[in-house]
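wait is this the right file?? whatever heres the structure
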């Protein structure tokens, strides 16, 4: 799964180092818990099981002798004894529960069991959809939710404030007069109060992003077909930085309307698998 926070999302205001450990596992119909392949997921999938990832980020100073903050086997043991059984129980007993509403209880269990302070915890339910908390979220009684989307669009990077020669020099092939295309990926991250998390509706969130962003930009020439990036009409140059900012500004209001206390934290747009921009940073 790849619904993981970018490194820039993981901050450590208290100093020290952050150690991250991801655990892959299946919740099986027969309740089995054994399996040898921790890389693919333990327990092994049996029948029509559920597959999840959970990431635990612990804070601390490396030991002077071992260089460890803590042994990863100790993180695994704490997660598998204290957290994973709660996930399996929820799948069995309350399968319609919202994951965001379950996360605070999972955080409390992890925080008690982990051998070092818990700084961040993420539950990746699909390759694109995750719920997570940081220690700051836990203090503020909030949960973060992230989902990914994509759209295909063409654009041209050209500034009317520069000469044609300067534009070609700065933007290179991206200044092609006919434009060029990308398969963009966009990931909004929203924050909701714990008190309202059980009312979060992923489908409603997705509908908002589809209506506000995807329908507006998908299979369009951004410079020509959209007011946001039509520079002849006051739009901005469609760089990945500006695209991230425009998507954020268009989504902020509709996200607030989704749920009492909901807010848009940030939007990341990938232009390619190697180039992205997060706004606000």
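ok assuming it is, sequence goes like this
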């Amino acid at each position: 799964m790849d619904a993981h926070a970018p490194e820039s999302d993981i901050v450590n205001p208290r100093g020290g180092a952050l150690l991250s450990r991801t655990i892959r596992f299946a919740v099986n119909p027969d309740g089995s818990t054994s399996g040898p392949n921790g890389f693919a997921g333990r327990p092994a999938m049996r029948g029509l099981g559920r597959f999840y990832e959970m990431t635990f980020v612990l804070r601390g100073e490396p030991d002077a002798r071992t260089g460890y903050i803590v042994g990863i086997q100790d993180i695994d043991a704490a997660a598998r004894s204290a957290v994973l059984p709660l996930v399996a129980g929820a799948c069995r007993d309350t399968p319609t529960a919202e994951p965001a509403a379950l996360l605070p209880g999972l955080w409390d269990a992890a925080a008690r069991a982990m051998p070092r302070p818990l700084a961040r915890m993420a539950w990746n339910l699909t390759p694109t959809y995750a719920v997570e908390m940081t220690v700051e979220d836990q203090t503020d009684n909030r949960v973060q939710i992230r989902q990914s989307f994509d759209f295909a669009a063409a654009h041209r990077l050209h500034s009317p404030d520069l000469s044609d020669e300067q534009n070609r020099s700065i933007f290179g092939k991206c200044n092609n007069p006919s434009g060029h295309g990308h398969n963009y990926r966009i990931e909004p991250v929203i924050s909701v109060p714990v008190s309202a998390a059980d009312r979060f509706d992923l489908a409603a969130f997705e509908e908002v992003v589809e209506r506000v962003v995807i329908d507006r930009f998908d299979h369009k020439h951004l410079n020509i077909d959209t007011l946001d990036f039509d520079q002849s009409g006051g739009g901005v140059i469609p760089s990945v930085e500006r695209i991230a900012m425009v998507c954020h500004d268009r989504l902020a209001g509709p996200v607030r309307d989704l749920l009492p206390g909901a807010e848009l934290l940030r939007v990341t747009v990938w232009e390619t698998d190697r180039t992205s921009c997060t706004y606000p940073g």
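The first strand starts at residue 17 and ends at 27. so i think its the right one actually
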